[in-house]
Amino acid sequence: xxxxxxxxxxxxxDEHGPCARLSVVDGVIVRVNAAAERLLGRASGALVGxxxxxxLTRDSxxxxxxxFLPLLMVRGALDGVFLGASLPxxxxxxxxxxASRRMDGGHVCVEFAMLVARQRVAYEGTPEAAGDAAEAxxxxxxxxxxxxxxxxxxxxxxxxxxxxxxVRDQLTGLLNRRGFTDAARQHQAVAERTxxxxxxxxxDLDGFKRINDTFGHDVGDEALTEMAVVLTETFxxxxxxxxxxxxxxxxxxxxxxxxxxxxxxxRLLTALAAHNAEPGRDFALATSVGLAAWxxxxxxxxxxxxxxxxxxxxxxxxxxxxxxxxx
Length: 327
Fold this sequence. Notes:
This protein is α+β, with helices and mostly antiparallel strands. The chain folds into 2 domains: 5-135, 2-Layer Sandwich (Beta-Lactamase), CATH 3.30.450; 167-326, Alpha-Beta Plaits, CATH 3.30.70.270. Helix content is 43%, strand content 22%. It is built from 11 helices and 9 strands. The protein has helices at 5-8, 34-40, 44-47, 58-75, 127-135, 152-164, 177-194, 208-215, 217-234, 261-276, 302-326, and strands at 20-25, 28-32, 77-86, 92-104, 107-116, 198-205, 240-245, 248-254, 287-294. Strand 1 (20-25) and strand 2 form a beta hairpin. Helix 4 runs parallel beside helix 6 (152-164), helix 8 packs across helix 9 and helix 9 crosses helix 10 (261-276). The longest helix is centred in the last third of the chain and has 25 residues, at 302-326. It is globular and about 65 Å long.
């Protein structure tokens, strides 16, 4: 028996279900089902013993290691994210991936459920729910082009850069400015191929200086950390959330159109209100939000989108300050 036998006892794969499944223990694939063999174009013997990243395209490896894997380790589950599978033939296949993590006798056990994703559809659920959704045909599939293709030189440059520099904010655990820029550029390249719209949001903490002056910088750091938690819990795993520095946060909301701006703002403000309603709080979190939209009809560069979102945020902030002064 191997050292992973105890952990494997609790790892189950539906051998014949339509949803592709992988079981991973301590970073190594230990079991696959027939659907996974078909999706990934490899027999189980070629998959077992490999890492999950060995099944992915280079750009998806970067996204997995820098964004999705840390989220999985903290949260214990991923609701459904989009990654590219790299087939032995050289073909790339976009996948909708759900994952859940558990600890078993010191072993890290992860269950993956995967479906071919021919459309970026909204999806919430566990790997079990992903299988149910596949079996019930609730996931619509329409043709899309190679959504995750990048040139080999660009991929190597991005890979080396991510290795050479930190991409995480030490206080909040979110991506920092460099991490956001790398991830956002990769997503924009995908959007330019698929035509999927996205929003960029800029926001900061209203009254952050007052919190620091009244309660001290440790409480100010607590406010920033709480805001990071609210953002990651409010938005999807496939969205990109970052802290640029100070009290400034930036988001990229994938597959989200300009018509959803008000809904996005309302969702965040509702989440903040619920957070502030928790008992025993010494301060309330408040924010001003600016949003800018990218679409195939109005393509703009990432710096232009960030500036537009930032400008809109300050317009909202000044309006709120003026309204408060008038009151």
